[in-house]
Design brief:
11 strands, 4-stranded antiparallel sheet, mainly beta, single chain, 124 residues
């Protein structure tokens, strides 16, 4: 299983970015795909998740600004980020796991496979 993220960049406050994650070798028929992020000195936190039924779960910090969705081939995960803020600066990781309840969808322990991450930097 391989997860490869792309789309990270440096932008100014209020800017937008679209992150993509291409997943190959997905072993789960029913699954959750998610975006996590980790800022320096902080724990990895869930940002957004989507299940096989396209039900999405968002962290409070992402609601209203970020949108997660799957590409047409169902093994591409997209995170559209708008109105970016300096506190969004982090390495963003794509993750894949078996289908899970929404209450666990943003927990790192729910995911078995991870990408290498892509850096997002937002300057004020």
């Amino acid at each position: 299983v391989q997860l490869v993220e792309s789309g990270g960049d440096s932008v100014q406050t209020g800017g937008s970015l679209r992150l993509s994650c291409v997943i190959s070798g997905n072993p789960f028929i029913s699954n959750n795909m998610a975006w996590f992020r980790q800022a320096p000195g902080k724990q990895r936190e869930g940002v957004a998740s989507i299940d096989s039924y396209n039900d999405a779960t968002y962290a409070d910090s992402a609601k209203g600004r970020f949108t997660v969705f799957r590409g047409n081939d169902k093994n591409t995960l997209i995170l559209q980020m708008n109105d970016l803020k300096p506190e969004d600066t982090a390495v963003y990781y794509c993750a894949l796991g078996s289908q899970t309840h929404a209450s666990a969808a943003l927990l790192p322990s729910a995911y078995m496979y991870w990408g290498q991450g892509t850096q997002v930097t937002v300057s004020s």
